[in-house]
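Q: Hi! First time doing this. I have a protein sequence and I read that you can turn it into a structure. Is that right? Here it is:
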Amino acid sequence: MSITPRIPSLIPESAPFTPEQRTWLNGLFAGMISLEESVTPLSDEQVAKLMPGLLERGAPAEEDDGAPWHDPAMPLPDRMKLADGKPLPRRLMAAMAQQDCSQCGYNCKDYAEALFTKKEERLNLCVPGGKDTARMLKNLYAELGQAAPAAKADAAPAPAAPVSAPGRSRDNPVYATFLSRRRLNKEGSEKETWHIEFDLADCGLDYEVGDSFGVYPANDSALVDAVLAALDAPPEFPIGGRTLREALTDGVSLSPAPDMLFQLISYLTGGERKKKAKALADGQDPDGDAGTLDVLAALQKFPGIRPDPEAFIESLDALQPRVYSISSSLKCNPGRVALTVDAVRYQVDKRTRLGVASTFLAGRVSPGDKIRVYVQKAQHFALPADPNKPIIMIGPGTGIAPFRAFLQERMASKAPGPNWLYFGHQRSDYDFFYEDELKEMRRNGHLTRLTLAWSRDGSEKIYVQHRMRDDGRDLWAWLERGAYIYVCGDALRMAKDVERALTDVVAEHGKRSPEDAARYVAELKKTTATKLTFIKGLKPWI
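A: Yes, that's right. Below is the predicted 3D structure, encoded as structure tokens:
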């Protein structure tokens, strides 16, 4: 009879491994150091010494505890402080903008995991995180490089990542035809919001409600001209088979100015200007204007430099696509997709800055133009599988986009579940998006409830979270009936205010303590059915 030797327990119970991982590692370490079964468990420090990086690389994904991983209102330094001591994937995640906006082609957690496993090497994909996130990811990625084992010279190359189907990722876009734009605000509004439509017939794309639509824009031609003038370089200068003008138009981002541009400028100047350029490249702010420097402003700050055009282009970030919530259902709009887009324009030092994609869609593209696009599949943002379930949709401003799609889908499929929409904006006379459609849905009974909030109609500013508290008794009754609740809007302010209002409603009308109410809302967000879902919009980068 053979006797299987008992493997000593060397891995501490606190180490972040599954039971199966712990058993395997216990056997591995026992063989490595020839220990007897009576030996006491190794410390984390001993494990790390035996196999550097193992504790981090073996760590399973942590549960989302609400902070620091998904609080976009929290400053990055505060998130990093809370993440101190966590496994490297969690610290990579904490460095991101925490909007799960899909701009990078991932959600924040998956982008962090892709960087950690080196399946993704681009550190500047987090558009809302901007330069602060890119700098932090660069620092953390260097740490990853130190922890990773050295590659052997004769090692087989890593398998190439699978290529997505055409039009199904940012890395494999297709061309769709721009159809039309229609302004949603009436004359007199302080805002500029557009209903945008594309024809998908030629590219063969389809989508589900809840998905997003990625658009590759082009920079404003006047801005490109101004950059060329500041460079004093010929527009037809050849850059990798293209001209300098073409590269500036749709190849590189012209806002904000990246650190590499300031590094290049520091090589081309001297004295005090060199010190300032080097400081800006290192993330400092010597003149208090670093946050306002786009590429043109950076060139104007250091006039007279004449970088080689090719080196200049290489110092800039690639122009990234912008992602918008789809505001239509294919069941009601065969072969078409609609978006709801705020045109972003703002003043800095007497110069009007433009949201690159939003103003591209709002004015620079013409009907019939072919635009590179793709569909970004939603991960957790979808209608309930049971069409009888009630849904509550909270979407002020352009946050209404996915809920217009939801309503169209439920209407086309004759879903019997009740629908409740919260919408708000500045003024009812000017900013009531899709007013005729919504009122018709209300009249025919498809839209069970429509609750409106206008922040500039009276002396008191009324927002959707105020209306939620006003409707607290009914809101709680819908939740008790199993309603799914969805929120779409400004991640930095509105989403947190709505979550706070919902917690207050649960506490008051559910007769729960504040702590129990917070747990109730947290459980709604964690259920496998995703009964409380937040989708967060971008603002100044669109």
